[in-house]
Fold this protein.
Amino acid sequence: MPRAGNDSGGGQPGRILKCKGWETDPNAYIYFITQAPVWEKICDVIGEPGWKTHPDYAKPPARLSRLNEIFARIEQWTMTKTKFEAMDILNKDDIPCGPILSMKELIEDPVAARHRHRGRGGSSRARQKYFSVGNPIKMSDSPTEVTRSPLLGEHTDEILRQVLGFTDHQVAEIHDSGALDPPRKVAAE
């Protein structure tokens, strides 16, 4: 596949488009897909009903060479709506789309899959909660488990013993030497 910038690489043309507020909000974007089954609904929503029957736009093969023009017109419409306003309108007609969410929006979204991540930040902050994005794809026959990433040094002893073959005594000597201690900050004088 050749590089396509913000375009999707699959069989359905899709692109990331600006929404209202994009000038100051780096997350004011929506991903929009122009699927053939909902093309007429897209034309109505963006105010281009003539495209439904126009020979340059009516059929998917004719649209392929005009995708830049088509998405520019759709973006004119999305820029008049917040990503959530656009989604509300598009979802009513089953037009595939999705907001580009910030981490804050992901954490606050009651529907977004998320996972509490405990124990980050060292021993003094071991009870602090962290959020991580879960798997957005849910399939009944292929469940996935989201687990936390390891803490710094969490598996050091295991690697020293099982992978590198060090004995318990050698591992203790390495710890005693200070080679595995995290760097210490020198207090400013």
